[in-house]
Design brief:
The protein is an alpha/beta fold and about 270 residues long. It has ten helices and ten strands. It has a single domain, classed as NADP-dependent oxidoreductase domain (TIM Barrel), CATH 3.20.20. The longest helix has 15 residues. It binds NADP nicotinamide-adenine-dinucleotide phosphate. NADP nicotinamide-adenine-dinucleotide phosphate (NAP) binds next to α9. It comes from Halanaerobium saccharolyticum. It holds the Pfam family Aldo_ket_red. Belongs to the aldo/keto reductase family.
């Protein structure tokens, strides 16, 4: 599995399994299948309500803890210093792990200074309960603010990113500041399958639109976390590394941006 290096020298697998919408037994089955197929990076969040289901899959798997990369996220209402520490402890218990590989602020909260949340997250890092710290759904101004307070701490910003939502300015800003972007909804929640350019390119090169979209992101050093719930989809999405990315596909996919934001952040200054 290809990995990207974070500014602290730690590595993050370029592809992970998104688990939003997966719950209970289905979630456990899908995560187990993913681990068997070779996934090592699992993305979850308090909000998804599936930590215990994921824990069951992790506990039943033979994969060693140190081979796994587990990301979870603190909800925006839990970002006050004390509450964040309390939530993080609960999430670790639910996931039945001793540390997060990556802990993110899920959504910014304008009523709680980011400095306060990051102070708590810094402590979690120092005491070994979070290996890496990051944010999610942060615009350029919000990311700038977070970096002003904690330039070394903030390593990742997880945002919506796919060929029809190509956030170039945010990507440039992140790179300049040594922050890795993780693309959520990398398949545009399934819309890539209706995109005629991706369908034509897929037919030409015997790839699915999902594979082209994921490879397009990985070529840009963006981590992708597609959600899938069947073995066939899991397998298809994992097969995005060992083939050449056609030059004309890369060129055509640069032109697909439609500012097609599927998840409304509820604030106006995104990119
Ligand atoms: N930080 C945030 O605020 C935030 C927000 C949204 C999402 N996320 C994260 O990002 C992850 C992915 O985003 P997402 O779930 O919104 O959407 P997505 O990954 O863009 O798309 C998922 C959809 O694509 C389908 N699919 C996946 N692989 C396929 C394949 N190879 N062929 C055909 N269909 C395929 C899935 O169907 P099946 O289920 O039938 O396989 C599902 O309907 C989430 O699960 C979550 O972990 C984070």
């Amino acid at each position: 599995m290809k990995q990207f290096e974070l500014k602290n020298g730690n590595k993050i697998p370029a592809l992970g399994l998104g688990t939003s919408g997966l719950r209970g037994e289905e979630c456990t089955t899908v995560v187990k299948q993913a681990l068997e197929l070779g996934y090592r990076h699992i993305d979850t969040a308090d909000m998804y309500g599936n930590h215990r289901a994921i824990a069951e899959a992790l506990n039943e798997s033979d994969v060693e803890r140190n081979e796994l990369f587990i990301t979870s996220k603190i909800q925006s209402q839990d970002l006050e210093y004390k509450q964040l520490l309390k939530s993080a402890a609960r999430l670790l218990t639910e996931l039945d792990i001793k540390y997060f590989d990556l802990l993110l602020i899920h959504w910014p909260n304008p009523d709680i200074p980011v400095e306060e949340s990051l102070k708590a997250m810094q402590e979690l890092k120092e005491d070994g309960r979070a290996i890496n710290i990051g944010v999610s759904n942060f615009t350029i101004p919000l990311l700038k603010e977070a970096l002003e307070h904690h330039p070394d701490l903030v390593t990742v910003n997880q945002v919506e990113f796919h060929p029809t939502l190509y956030q170039k300015n945010l990507l440039d800003f992140a790179f300049k500041n040594d922050v890795i972007l993780t693309a959520y909804s990398p398949l545009a929640q399934g819309e890539v399958f209706n995109n005629s350019v991706l369908k034509d390119l897929g037919e030409k090169y015997d790839k699915t639109p999902a594979q082209l979209a994921l490879r397009w992101l990985i070529e840009k050093d963006i981590v992708a976390i597609p959600k899938a719930s069947s073995k066939a989809h899991l397998k298809n999405n994992l097969d995005v590394f060992d083939w050449n990315f056609p030059v004309d596909a890369a060129r055509e996919m640069e032109l697909l941006d439609q500012n097609n934001r599927l998840i409304d952040p509820g604030y106006p200054d995104f990119d």
